[in-house]
Write a structure and sequence with these properties.
5 helices; about 90 residues; elongated; Zf-HC2 domain-containing protein
Amino acid sequence: METTTTELKGDVTAASDDCQKIISILEMIIDDEATSDDQTYFYKHLEECANCFEAHRHQKMLKDFLKLNVKRKDAPASLISTIKKIVQETV
């Protein structure tokens, strides 16, 4: 039987304080915004914890999927000029 993300998160949150910390820095790791200390801690923990490893893998797959399949749309020129005008008026 396959483990769902919801079940996985439940397992991870119940696992340990280390898993709680991993969950709190997971998004920063995925976005390459974590400190080097957090990265070291994170990857060392993944070597020892299958649940956190799977949570990381699922999150990374989702982000990669979104990057490939969600197209960025440009803002209308009128919106851009309106925002610039408002910013200039408030400065």
